[in-house]
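Lab meeting prep.
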Amino acid sequence: MSQPMMIKTRGDGLQIQVAVWGEKGKEILCIHGLTANCRFWDCLANALAPHHRVIAMDLRGRGLSDKPPIGYSIQHHCKDVLALMGDLGLERPVLMGHSLGAFISLVFAAQYPKRVDRIILVDGGGKLTDEQMAKVFEGIKPSLDRLGQIFPSFEVYVSQMKQAPFLQPWNSFMETYFRYEVEEVGGGVRSRVHLRHIEEEAMNLKRLDSTQFYAKVNTPTLILRATKGMLAQDDLVLPEDVAERMVKEIRKAERVDLEGTNHYSILFQPNEKRDEAVLKFLSEG
């Protein structure tokens, strides 16, 4: 497993941490999900880096990026992405987002079409009904429950995650991700992510109607969809009807279902079909 180069760059009035793999090919800017960080991309980055330059950011409030007291919404993140692109000299990168990151990629591509080569939406970006959204938030509840809690050691912190059904089988990519996530505090360790920031983010995300952006996206779009739920079979982030609407209304969209993956394993686990689909998509046009 190759390790990324870690550097600081500028967001919109704050510092953003990024991880960089590879030096050649297309520049791919990766944007993680709600409570995640840049190391969520390690597995896929290792598959792509021999051919492309992969740049994964810690969103504001996550990882080693700055954590302002307020300012957690799609628009805040889009401004950070634009500033980061300017600071790193990225003229027209590929945007690849997972979960919340897929929404950010979708909105950014709609608002700044000339700044994006193409987008890859990994299990996210679709408009859910209130009922579907409630099921998804129930599915990610284990990820939210750890926020703010102090655990006596990293081993205790990660022991709950090692038992989670949606993280099986456990691997070194997950170990790296969770080690990067924690900070030492009095009494042990805790996640670097603050619950109040995620609550603001979730509230703003629930207000977003992503369908209003579909017709405004003119770049080639690849939708990677997990077919298994997290804690139940019906807590899919991209249910069939939602994914179909995206393919229908985003002009240049194509969809690849990754059978047997869930919202987490779609990136955490090695997957040849995923890697082949992404590499093929990047080579087109």
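Slide two material, second protein:
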Amino acid sequence: MFRNTERTNQVQALERADRILQTIAQSPRGTGVTEISAKTGLPKGTVHRLLSSLANLGYVRQDKETKNYFLGLKLLELGTLAGSQIDLRKISEPLLRDLANRTKETVHMVVLDHDEIVYIEKIESDGDLGGLKMASRVGARNPAHSCAVGKVLLSFLSDEEIERFINAKGLPKRTENTITSPSKFKEHLKIVRRLGYAVDDQENEHGIRCVAAPILDRRGRAVAAISVSGPAFRVTMKLIESKLKDEVISTAREISIKMGYKP
């Protein structure tokens, strides 16, 4: 049996990097290559190479005078984001449940990660899906361009970031309704940003329609999005326009305010 050598080496590098970070974390005054090597049992050359990579990524920083290494601001940033996501779920859960009860449809909350959406909350409705099964689940990923929550979050990116997203991920066709033209997609995102909500008109899954709105932090950045989803025969465009979009926008705004956003 052949082992996947490349994958094994990648995992080993991550484990070694973790050992180095743990060692630095235990040294308030910083620590040098020799001490890290001794404590981790790794060769100095390996330690130096991994530290260089970690420094370039912002996970560690080196004092120019002492040459000692300290934890970098990147870890603080990630820790803050992780904490905010935990707070976000805690704050949002009762409001999302109330939204699901009012609309009798399924409610999702997602974040954007590596140009994909990741479901961080899902509250099922008691409504009949008409034989359809929604594929979403907490922790699952989906393309951002073909769903309402993804389009809402992408609409907050700069023109340059949207261009990079399209070049990196493309706009693959999920259904016959998916927007696959870059120029049309860019114009669509401008409309989404202006309206403050997005609709997925069976663009990601056949027979499923949804409407989404952004959750903003105290700086006005879109940190997550929520949506109401259901079978297209029940979640009609008329119902979205007359009721659901306002319900979603109102709940998203309430969550945003609880997260520190000031309209």
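Talking points for slide two:
Residues 119 and 139 are 5 Å apart (CA to CA).
The beta strands are 60-62, 69-71, 106-113, 116-123, 141-143, 198-201, 208-216, 222-231.
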